[in-house]
Amino acid sequence: MPTFYNHNFLFTAGFFVRAIVYIVIFAIYTALIAIGLTLSGKYGLPFTTGSLFLDRVIFFSALASPLIFVEWRIRVNRKKLGLSLYKNISDDLLHLELNKTSSDKKDLNYWFELKEKGAISDDEYQVKKKELL
Question: How far is CA 49 from the centre of its chain?
């Protein structure tokens, strides 16, 4: 079963860069929702508890929860792969893939699959089989 390494920007970036991205996204969401709430003045707030503090906590929690979930998933995946939680790991991911690729070539099934796909001939497969066994 092949191992998939996530190479998207947030997964490979260090914690400081991720924190800046989260702050920018949070600020944009907050601004858009605040503009939307001010433009639709006839409807009022979608939720009111009577306490301004509690309303703000609910509002900011609703905005921050997707970002908290993304950071949690990044940390879980990094721990699963044995990588650092805080530094940029793009080089580490490339080394993991390189090690995975080089170890596949020592497996007889790798060469058998190439033979089945027609990428190598039967004679080449037999030579590799003798080398590996």
Answer: 36
